[in-house]
Amino acid sequence: MFLQKLAQGGMITIDYYNKGALKTLKGSVYCLNLKEQLLSLKDEKQVMHSIRLSGIKQIH
């Protein structure tokens, strides 16, 4: 699965929907929880963000 390969890499940028708004986040993958369908990222300031996999529009 491509998401598991992302967890091994460095910094990524994700475009995702949150409450109907399109947002962009740059960070490194901290945790990938397939059971709960969540991707956790640490941004450049070491702040944790959780994103639902269904809300992801694009990963670069």
3D architecture notes:
The protein is mainly beta. It has one helix at residues 2-6; strands at 11-18, 21-33, 38-43, 48-52, 56-59. It has one domain (2-59): Roll (SH3 type barrels), CATH 2.30.30. A hairpin with a 4-residue loop joins strand 2 (21-33) and strand 3 (38-43). It is globular. The mean pLDDT is 89. This is YolD-like family protein.
Strand-helix topology:
Blueprint: H1 2-6, E1 11-18, E2 21-33, E3 38-43, E4 48-52, E5 56-59
Antiparallel strand pairs: 1-2, 1-5, 2-3, 3-4
Largest sheet: 5 strands, antiparallel
In round numbers, the mean pLDDT is: 89
Poorly predicted ranges? none
User: What is the 3D shape?
Assistant: globular
Protein name: YolD-like family protein
The gist of it:
By secondary structure, the protein is mainly β. Helix content is 8%, strand content 60%.
Give the tags.
1 helix, five-stranded antiparallel sheet, mainly beta, 60 residues, YolD-like family protein, SH3 type barrels
